[in-house]
């Protein structure tokens, strides 16, 4: 076995042992084309993967995003490399997306310019009469540099937009073999027959095998959903049928991803860019909405309006005031379709009165200098792209990939080497994978909040949990339409007077609070509150967990849980922990949300509970009881409380690695820990930090979050019999997604909730078991 590459970097060559010795080396250190290896053989560990297509617009970005999510469970700092691009000045959308998702900012991964190798013009200058050695050597050097900055490089091949598209697959194969990167092939199934796809797959395999590449998988993207099974059968035949024992490559996995319309649709923002348009008005969130079609307003209003559908972009001249006002009115009406926007051509704009009417509807209104025919003609030739701001498309792409690909099989074939580091992206990827593996039902009572609806759509697309949204179904549907989000995969339950569950839950509340004198009528009134209704669903095993707090205080979220769910056996206090995701590791902070000034006994209990929370999420608990003094160096009421709590915890849980009292720096910094508390296994290596009071805990987590660049996930409420978690009122969509995933994972330790059999809950959405109705 020999390493492949130009140069003698020891680290790189160690990681690149992938195949047989090249026949010979020519000047420049670039190997010649090698003998083909058995196509199904994935050799020793590689720290890279090469994604190539065979034609333009095959959807490599969707596949690359899915692969990065897959690798995020074990790669601390994956980066993208685009060897040859058309324009090095314009930031590549995929590079931008990866940098946004995986935290590749200052000090996190290579600068954007280093993620791009050469332009086609620069590449041509390095080719001497068909000899590509200088070109390959230059790109191998760039690749080796990226390897020195990251633990995994995902190479996304050329876009088949260069001067010789017919030979680009050969060039990608040559680059892959010299990079030492196994290859994942992407074929476009758009508008192609099964026979055509089978022929394209054979041709691609022949070129890659002939170059000596290691093929890990083939993905047919953008396939017709109706023929996906037929395509899979044709491209992945049964090898046993050959009966000749030859390794013909048929054991290379094939996956089929159906065409997803939202991925190729332009957003309103992209229409603005494509047509040099100007935004006259419109809610910022609606500029990210996808355009599902175009309706040219060349007829009278009464003719155009019946043709209007959700997501359509109405194209008209600005002097058609009837169409401008009529389209705005449909956008504001709950019973009419919600258009994506209004595009005015020829640079025209309506008057102030008409504009004010459109502004009130929130509908985006644009003006472009192009005429109507030219504008529509230009738009029809464009496809939308995955960008950092395309949250809906990103979620759809990730969902399509995880649904269509056997991720465990693909990960094994890539055979990524592990890492001890845990980045925020790795923690989140592992969290989502755990939630997805044993999906549970989570209630979201604040369905009127935009962030909750957007998170619900993302959670459904990612297949993380079965969701129950509480609210009037008609109001929820109208709000979702206005926002351009799809929450049809969630079950909407109205907690109002007509709810089939309300009588059952009111009876349960009256029984649970009978010792407090609560009557049936009082219980009935309590269940009008969506947070109380959702909490009772969890308490009665109608759901597995609840997430609230986007529009309510922590007290309003916790109080119903303490009344009817109550604390777990052996626990007297509910507390709040945060997962603090730092650059390469995760710490758990507590209590940062609930208890103002716990006693020594309560503090010991909180520490024990937090240690179990850490362990349940894959973090080895090493507990530091934080104070302003380390060891016996100081005294005072506050530090004495921490010292007593440490003694109580040590007696109750002698199995836990423990240090306390200990200052924060001695807990997390190895040098300081060795100096202040030598020979203690926790000092300098703490993973769980327990603070003496809420003032200290809450202040510290926010200081680390804001000044230290940490991602704070939480608060995670711990100590309840069933999981209920609280959101900050300043939470983001990503915060809600993470908290729902955490709640789902917590619920996996309890019997599964069951909504089946409840009268009146048969229409729409998902059942608690996750099947689509």
Tally of individual helices: 29
Radius of gyration: 29 Å
Portion in strands: 15-25%
**Structural class, from secondary structure content?**
alpha/beta
Biggest sheet record: 7 strands, parallel
Helix content: 25-40%
Q: How many distinct beta strands?
A: 25
Q: Span between N and C termini?
A: 54 Å
Task: Indicate the overall shape.
Answer: globular
Strand order of the largest sheet: 5-4-6-3-7-8-9
Look at the structure and give the mean pLDDT.
83
Low-confidence stretches: 1-45, 104-113, 238-248, 762-773
List keywords for this structure.
29 helices; alpha/beta; disordered C terminus; globular
Set out the fold topology:
Elements: E1 2-3, H1 10-15, E2 17-19, E3 48-53, H2 60-71, E4 78-85, H3 93-101, E5 116-119, H4 120-125, H5 133-149, E6 152-156, H6 168-179, E7 183-188, H7 194-210, E8 215-223, H8 228-235, E9 254-258, H9 261-264, H10 268-274, E10 278-281, E11 293-296, H11 301-304, E12 312-317, H12 321-332, E13 341-345, H13 352-361, E14 365-367, H14 372-380, H15 391-404, H16 407-414, H17 424-437, E15 441-444, H18 450-462, E16 466-470, H19 473-483, E17 491-493, H20 502-512, H21 520-526, H22 530-539, E18 545-548, H23 554-564, E19 575-581, E20 586-590, H24 600-616, E21 623-626, H25 637-652, E22 658-662, H26 664-668, H27 670-676, E23 688-690, H28 694-707, E24 711-718, E25 724-726, H29 733-747
